[in-house]
Amino acid sequence: MNQQKELPKEFYELLEQIQAVDFVLVELTLYLDTHPNDLDAIKQFNNEALKSKKLKDQYEAKYGPLMQYGKSFSYYPWNWDDAPWPWQI
Amino acid sequence: MWYYEKKLQYPVKVSTCNPTLAKYLIEQYGGADGELSAALRYLNQRYTIPNKVVGLLNDIGTEEFAHLEMIATMIYKLTKDAKPEELVEAGLGAHFVNHDHALFYQNAAGNSWTANYIQAKGDPIADIYEDIAAEEKARATYQWIIDVSDDPMLNDSLKFLREREIVHSQRFREAAEILKEERDRKKVF
Amino acid sequence: MNFTQTKYYYPYISPFDPCKPIRVKSYSTPPNLYLGFQPPHSPQFKTAREALFHGTLWPSLASTYPPKGERE
């Protein structure tokens, strides 16, 4: 019997928002690695980091932990290793 | 150490079951200029390069693993439920008899990944110039894969990866400039 | 942007070349070849989503790869 739950449209939308904000953080990280004194870029970086944290709190409350080894809290039962994995969705 | 995050860097969608495209994409999985080579090259070079560019090698190396996962996702989705005869037809018969549907670190021609693909010369200029060249070669490989792919959804993700090679090349070029700067003159007492 | 991202060349064509000749060949010359050290405060894409789908935060580094027909 197929017991898998289908992911709602909102899941994909929220994931895309996280991917977008985290992408800006990747770009700013590499930029700051070669431009360490750009204060405005650092302010933007910290601002985006805060946005990312808020979006991830929202995501994790609905769909489970994004990270482990203690970087995310766990619900009961342990749901970190629940499918689907990123390559499966 | 590293932490895994349960998401892809960029959405990966493919339109059809297409093992032929998967066969080509393996080039960027376990090929000379692929994502595995890139990740291992940069993370290995970072131990013996001046501190002012270590962070960049560390962070680009880390991003390359996210790209490796995207390529794996494409290959996985393009071949997931393909029947053995479909794999044979796509030129993946030899792959199937050795690996079934499993991924393997090899190039499109079936040669296993080898450390000979990457260099660590210990000379900062030689290493950074190798990295710039590696990014341009990976960009070219993405172009040739896009040229033979007729899957618009897959091409969207491949264009993202091509653009990342351009940004990485830009940062490595900046790293070369940083290494050339006169500011850290040898102190003579 | 005062540079083009595609360059062209005209290979020699021999009467003994068996494949139908491609008279004009092209190759990519993306913006990282021209930018130099990226200046601070370069304009950014307006939204994070736009940046994601361009693969870069900065339009000055964005590169397109047009389909083959449009490059020849």
Beta content of chain B comes to: under 5%
Chain pair sharing the greatest interface: A-B, 24 and 27 residues
Which of globular, elongated, flat, extended, rod-shaped describes the shape of chain A? elongated
H/E element order of chain B:
HHHHHHH
Class of secondary structure makeup of chain B: mainly alpha
**SS field, number of helical segments of chain B:** 7
Architecture of chain B in CATH? Answer: Up-down Bundle
* Low-pLDDT regions of chain B: none
InterPro entries (chain C): Spore_coat_CotJA
Keywords (chain C): Capsid protein, Virion
Pfam family, one (chain C): CotJA
Protein name (chain C): Spore coat protein JA
Structure write-up:
The complex is a heterotrimer of chains A (89), B (189) and C (72). With 89 residues, chain A is mainly α. Chain A contains 2 helices and no strands. The radius of gyration of chain A is 16 Å and the shape is elongated. Chain B has one domain: Ferritin, core subunit, four-helix bundle (Ferritin, Up-down Bundle). Chain B has 7 helices and no strands. The model of chain B has no long low-confidence stretch (mean pLDDT 96). By secondary structure, chain C is an alpha+beta fold. Chain C has one domain. In chain C, 15% of the residues lie in helices and 11% in strands. Chain C contains 2 helices and 2 strands; from the N terminus they run E-E-H-H. In chain C, strands 1-2 form a two-stranded antiparallel sheet. The mean pLDDT of chain C is 93. The interface between A and B is medium-sized, with 24 and 27 residues. Chain A: InterPro entries: CotJB_dom, Spore_coat_assembly_CotJB. Chain A: This is Spore coat protein JB.
Care to give the gist of this entry?
The complex is a heterotrimer of chains A (89), B (189) and C (72). Chain A is built from 2 helices and no strands. Chain A is mostly helical and 89 residues long.
